[in-house]
Amino acid sequence: MHWFDEHAEINPETWRALMADGDQISKNFNRSEFACKCGCGFDNISFVLVNSLQALRDFFARPVRVTSGCRCVEHNAAVGGGEKSQHLHGLAADIKVDGMTAQEVYDWFERRGWLGGLGIYESWVHADVRQQQVRGTTGDAERPACL
Q: Is residue 142 part of a domain?
């Protein structure tokens, strides 16, 4: 069991959506938004991550765009993802929030004491729900390959 699974509260709306076994997995997110972009069908995204992104969306009352969620091994390699990328396990999403800078989104996660992986890039943020705190930035030679 993942640390977040034991300690994160899933809001009732998200829980009802999960139990419905459809594409809608929270108030504002569909499972298809997190599906591997190659079309292979891999869409097993962490509901703890979805719930956290829903909280972000609710807080700012702005759409959150998922630019990358789940990735199969082939697609991860094609986009230059690391061998230990959390996207491979459905534990990560790269996101943009309409009308906000990547720095503003990153800062929101940091203010909440985000315990997983967090990366800031020129126009988007990487967030994941791994069991340890990891940080990375654009152009950072030391950026972990697992982001």
A: no
